[in-house]
């Protein structure tokens, strides 16, 4: 037998491998034509059947597998000059689908539970790829229902055993903000605002006299970094963490955007000011001139990509500080690099700061998965416990939202900002979901010019941007050249 954390090698090879799995036991009654259905759905790459008989023989007439899952119909379409990346989309699509059941689940084999951080990534891929968003709506509603007497959104829901996470609870306002931007249903957003406000009020009450979060309830999970204990880096559990405080800054900023969208401008201003003050306080405590970056904690000089990523995403860094943090991400020279889950946020920061080389270099991890025999997405790089985690399909979102650069610039996707980050691609064609239909972008680059042909739904307007030069676009089909 092998240790559960051993490197598995090519997943398509079975010779010389050991079996690790669980399943069901059936005890035939001896009746002719007896059927033995499973009592709950299972997931795995292979099926192993053990048969033990008594005095009488057993005739196994048929062994079948019934596939279950949510009936998504994918709208997202993509072709480009990079055929290796084009071939990844079916893998990402399949990986997301195996985690779509009654709810989004983190994985179909182990927990089979709907977690906030995982589902935030599921939802974003849902918004760009599938018009049917009922699973994402249900997740937002379920986490709303999960609030305890103190108002904290549960780390996972529904679940027989409650588990709390302050970092995941602080992601909930960002989830609602994402829905508000990518979908056009402000009524649904208004119904979630009590849950958003309860998260922000709760954590505001937990702040210390220095204007920072220290002791917070639950498991402050950040990312599956190999050197971190249970996903928590230096200072996270001890109550001295820049990363936890940066989660709160981003939650307050999401609250500001949501309050403006629902017409509560005074509350929006309060959240904006609170985010600015909190950010100043954490920069005073955690910024290191010596290291030219944000430290994870004051108890040691450890640095992580995670702190730099979150700080960049706030948009509150001074220009020289932002350049320093971005440079660290480019060079990957911290004590802790982002793993698959948090790589989504790193890709987002790289896109927003137009770091094309670093962005596309990071996609290399996904490009090599087929050569390792993967048919879904691993939980972490080798050694990987689990090989089916839909949140690892977040490059599906980034294909449309970052490489093609299709993003909403107003609530309800009423305006669009198309700013591709194609790297070395000479051409691509992308079709992305929109509440009123689809957005189509065809990109072509030659030595002479860059051309985009863009089709937007009627009534939608925005800007197409190339190398900082914006050109207006509107409903229908149009061409823009730079």
Q: How is this structure best described in words?
A:
- By secondary structure, the protein is an alpha+beta fold.
- It has 15 helices and 11 strands.
- Strand 6 (427-434) and strand 7 form a beta hairpin.
Number of contiguous helices = 15
What portion of residues belong to β-strands?
5-15%
Q: Could you report the average pLDDT, rounded to the nearest whole number?
A: 95
Report the helical percentage: 25-40%
Summary tags:
single chain; 482 residues; alpha+beta; five-stranded antiparallel β-sheet; four-stranded mixed β-sheet; 11 strands; 36% helix; globular
Concise structural overview:
This protein has 482 residues and is an alpha+beta fold. The protein is 36% helix and 12% strand.
Give the secondary structure arrangement, pairings included.
Elements: E1 77-80, H1 83-86, H2 88-97, H3 116-129, H4 134-145, H5 166-169, H6 172-182, H7 186-205, H8 242-261, H9 265-286, E2 287-288, E3 293-294, H10 305-314, H11 319-331, H12 340-352, H13 356-362, H14 364-367, H15 395-403, E4 406-408, E5 415-418, E6 427-434, E7 437-445, E8 450-456, E9 461-466, E10 469-473, E11 476-481
Parallel strand pairs: 5-9
Antiparallel strand pairs: 1-6, 2-3, 4-5, 6-7, 7-8, 8-11, 9-10
Helix pairs in contact: 3-4, 3-6, 3-15, 6-7, 6-8, 7-8, 8-9, 8-10, 10-11, 10-12, 12-13, 12-15
